[in-house]
Amino acid sequence: MHFWCVAAYFFGKEQMRMKLVLAEKPSVAQSLAKVLGVTNRQDGYLEGNGYIVSWCVGHLVELAQPEAYDERYGKWTYGDLPILPDDWKYEVSAGTRKQFGILKKLMARDDVVSLVCATDAGREGELIFRLVYHQCHCKKPFERLWISSMEDSAIMEGFENLKPGTEYDALYEAALCRERADWIVGINATRLFSTLCGQTLNVGRVMTPTLAMAVMREAAIAGFKPEPFYTVQIDLGGFTAVSERFKKKSDAEAVSRDCSAAVVTKAERKEKSEKPPALYDLTSLQREANRVLGYTAQQTLDYTQNLYEKKLVTYPRTDSRYLTDDMAHNLPDLVNLAFHTFPVDGVDNVPVYAEQVVNNKKVTDHHAIIPTRELQKCNLNELPKGELAILQLISTRLFVAVGDPHRYAETVIELDCGGTAFSAKGKTILHDGWKALARKSDSTKSDEKEQALPSVSVGDEMAVISTEIKEGKTSPPKHYTEDTLLQSMETVGADEMPDEVERKGLGTPATRAGIIEKLVRIGFLERKGDKKTKHLIPTHKGTALVTVMPEQIQSPSMTADWEEKLLLIEKGKYASEDFMDEIKDVIADLIRNYEVIQDSEVLMSKESNAVGKCPVCGSSVEEKAKAFFCSNRSCKFALWKNNRYFESIGKSMTSATAQKLLGSGKIKLKGCKSAKTGNTFDATVYMEVFEDGKTRFNMEFDNGGKRK
Length: 708
Fold this sequence. Notes:
Helix content is 37%, strand content 21%. It is an alpha+beta fold. The protein has a 7-stranded mixed sheet, with helices on both faces. Helix 4 packs across helix 6, helix 6 packs antiparallel against helix 18 and helix 9 packs antiparallel against helix 14 (482-491). The protein starts with a helix and ends with a strand. The model is unreliable at 1-14, 442-448 and 496-503 (pLDDT under 50).
């Protein structure tokens, strides 16, 4: 009897052993809990079946501000620089203290014997978990859930194959270095230039070099002087040929007069093939969505993240465009599912050449973005417009990438007419291949039509029926779009790095969208253009900032080199201490040696920043760093840039938004995002202003109905 009592006691104790699973957000936690059979809902977590599943809310723990190290840092002075902490301090975000308290209590529970890090499988996700873990002074062992899909099967497989948390220590080190480097550069450079120029100037490790590229592009456009050129086009009865360029019209006229017969000097026909494009990583998806759909990089990331959480696509924040070898056998079924979900008119089926997209060596942490088998269960009509468009892009790219090559015959004819060389090119499509699918899906631009050329031989003499002089001008560089700026961010510094370097450029696929959005939000860049094609143009403020910045702060190449070193830290091939020492040395040297540029106060002089009339007193409303304030100091009216109402629908209080609200009291917004469901919608927001300057907003949906 005694034996069974003891056995029952220990059995009961064993049953109480719990594993705490920490996800990055509530929606993900709920998906994990469902697969694990955890159904008992509590305040801030779910419990049952041997697991406790809880979540973070954004960055629960953040680096402390300088004044946490010394009170005197509360005031910005040149003499206090550089600020270089030895022992880094962290603090819990004010808005997330409740959830942090819940996690701390859960980690301290006696029945919780271990943890599972189930935050996003990347550098940022690793940092979020570790900072909470350390801030709670937790010493319990933890494992890592590393998955690329939120499908039930992928979650289950991930939990069956949890990795020791220590395997990701290098990833955590890289994340710490990135965060601390951004703090050192941002805090010190911002305070340095703000104190020297007499106004607040936001400077960032990646943000400022990105801005510098846009400023240099605009400078090249402004300084460009178009030069005229002339060509001669000859009609040879069935096709036309064009001469080389002439700087002088008189030279083109002379050629035109003397050209009566042409002799074939070259006649070549080659059959060529064009491989399908690779699958999407995040940056290539953002670029394509901007080019085809007009979406910003941030919109594309948000839509793709929503699709990921709905289990319809794989992990979005990837820098790989290939799949792993073990995925090849399931690929035909997935391709057919994607094709039948988004069929192409006139095409009954698609080939599957898996070897074109499978390459273990080109997959790092996560494979390319592809749809999942959840497509089979998805009601497309229930998806928001933006998410549906992105899902179609991703699905179409899958069956395009495994398709037949595009085959064509290219004919080149070169001729001599009166001592001047002429040429003509022609193209005959032999097999549309993947382009038939891509063109009809509108995800790739179709080829321009090229003339068909006759069969000729070297030495053939052809009569010139007529000549025509064409005038053109050299073109300046093009303004950056979201597409082309992302491309430059991705490739800058590549020429200076070895070919084997895997990741080059400014930022990472996960951070580039946020960098662009911040530059727009703080007034350094602005979007100009029509609905589909918007250019990213530096403002006066942005141009002036880059003008007074020294090379080491605005250099894209140096920052790209830092990004490469962060990747090496992530792989355990570079010491984090060496990286941080380099960052500190650059900042210390900058503060010691920087000399204020002559007339910088003129360069940084403020433009007229009035955005409208105050609805309370009629004075002008002016844009400041944190808000749009009434210029009348006795008036309390203000529109704050971190407006909670607008943030709750995924929008921000921009200058353009403030102008419209002040002008008409309302603004029509597209692509608003519900914080609860993640769905997007279009609506009109109305502003109500009271006598004391306070504001209230309410919303009218496009399909009717109001929400306060």
